Amino acid sequence: MNLQSRDPEIAKIIAAEERRLREEIVLIASENYASRAVLEATGSVLTNKYAEGYPGRRYYAGTENVDAAESLAIERAKQLFEGAEHVNVQPHSGSQANMAAYFAALEPGDRVMGMSLDHGGHLTHGSPVNFSGRIYDFVHYQLDEESELIDYDAVERMAQELQPKIIVSGYSAYSRTIDFERFGKIAENVGAIHLADMAHIAGLVAGGEHPSPVQHAEIVTTTTHKTLRGPRGAMAITSKDWARKYDSAVFPRMQGGPMEHTIAAKAVAFKEALSNDFKQYAKNIVDNASALAEAMAASGMRIVSGGTDNHLMLVDLRAMNVSGAEAEIRLRSVGIVANKNMVPFDPNPPRVTSGVRIGVPSITSRGMGTSDMETVAEMIVASLRVDDESTEQRNLAKRVKDFATSFPVPGIDS
Ligand SMILES: Cc1ncc(COP(=O)(O)O)c(C=O)c1O
What we know:
Blueprint lengths: L2 H4 L1 H16 L1 E2 L9 H7 L10 E2 L2 E2 L5 H17 L5 E3 L5 H12 L5 E5 L15 H5 L1 E5 L10 H11 L3 E4 L10 H11 L2 E5 L4 H5 L12 E5 L10 E5 L1 H15 L5 H14 L2 H23 L3 E2 L8 E5 L7 H9 L3 E2 L1 E3 L13 E5 L1 H5 L4 H16 L5 H15 L9
Parallel strand pairs: 1-13, 5-6, 5-7, 7-8, 8-9
Antiparallel strand pairs: 2-3, 4-10, 9-10, 11-12, 12-15, 14-15
Helix pairs in contact: 3-11, 4-11, 5-10, 7-8, 12-15
């Protein structure tokens, strides 16, 4: 019995979500559209199988097929990220991939250094409301106030003074190229481990549009569902020396049975990412983000750090007197989905914020190009200026919907 007959309520919700994805412009920097092939693997019978352990050494019988899928995922990940000595494709999420890195290398109370959350770090980089901030002694570096860029000398001085056991690089809201090599050297000089969390930029690294952290970090973690365009999940790449410790931190310390259906879908996504089309996609992302940032700046918006080198930008709305929370509502009211975000040295609290984070991976997956970015910028800026239900707002909403529906959504329409 199919879903429609078995559970029409859930089928209806999924259909509504498909409609939303078609009709809205998704600018959430961490989202993307998985392909039909990825969705198919995710929805496959591999969901049925228990396979605690790793390929060839499982605690369950009957694992030959999931062993083959997991081995393929590992092999392809190694091909995709050159120099990868060891890969673990089991972490259920980016947060868990990071948790396993901490479990592998730290004891409770050990010191870790990461970027402060309000400057672009992730919750798992030591937020007091997250397990990382509760279990470990996190200290945070920030961006340079004037340039809004990472000040590597300041990071180095802080590392020398505070002697962390891990230094975390990689962020959720940093729009510039990360010098992973420099982070590797800073960590080496203080005897720390370098954990590079490339969750946001993994697709750009895979496509050759951002320098790879793999040669410069003992442990690299990433989600598979952002710029990498795979299923919701994560993976880690470690040096040979950290392979066993990392694997046992994932299983049995942190997780039980791996999600083999998702792992198979990761393998599919890695195959897709190895193609020339994906290289072109990664380039298109970077071109689109630059074009959008330029068009936004030309309309008077302040882009944090003056632009972007990757897939996202932060827009500082203080001059417009609109909070990030209000901007999120105004954008959504016309069918543009983006999220509020702290800007560096933000005077507003996290629930309010002074900025919005805008990313182009999703619209680039739909086939929008640099010539469309002016239209997108125009619609963003216009919607930020409309604060009430009005004819102008309704016209804008129609324009957004007409524009969005003229592009196919991968996984649904193509
Ligand atoms: C830099 C970074 N690391 C880790 C994560 C966590 O990923 P997940 O939401 O899959 O736990 C995110 C998610 O946005 C992220 O931006």
